[in-house]
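Example pasted here:
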Amino acid sequence: MMQKPLILASSSPYRRAILEKLYLPFSCVSPDIDETPLDGETPPQTALRLAESKARKVAETTPDAWIIGCDQVATLDGRHIGKPGDHARAVEQLTALSGKLVIFHSALCLYDSGTQQMQSLIVPTEVKFKTLNAQQIDSYLRLEQPYDCAGSAKSEGMGIALLEYMRGDDPNALVGLPLIALVALLQQAGCDVLSLARS
């Protein structure tokens, strides 16, 4: 049995689907925090701070659990790339990303709300976009409507056709939850995923 409840501090259906791959019982709690970057903060610093803040926020109502906090900031030439929100902004975003290298900084933390011990790290992923024309961009966006995804592309779906390559330690990191790193953090916290996984 797991020693503590496992909670994913996120409302993201993408992160939930990734965590389900580990066959561990868990629940999801949506943290309500301000995600505005701070002045002078680098993109990796923003992602890490927000991941930790989300975990601490959920810990306020969960006194003894393992809480997973995550956040992702995408950057082009060091500039923050957010979620487009609608079709017009997604067209602008993919037009700007065409032929360019984007770095996705995926932050992860595991917070033990009982002991207040926190482990956190950043998993970067380099993504090179193909040179795209207006018709390709419009066709893709109408097909998949990735308006809630930073970079306007779902790499786990048809968005893979927009990419020239991806380079990183974990393909799950690009979707928003680095599983390889999470398994290692859980192991350090005393949770052996392979022993506790259930069908």
About this structure: The beta strands are 6-8, 27-28, 66-76, 79-81, 101-112, 117-129, 163-168. The first strand starts at residue 6 and ends at 8.
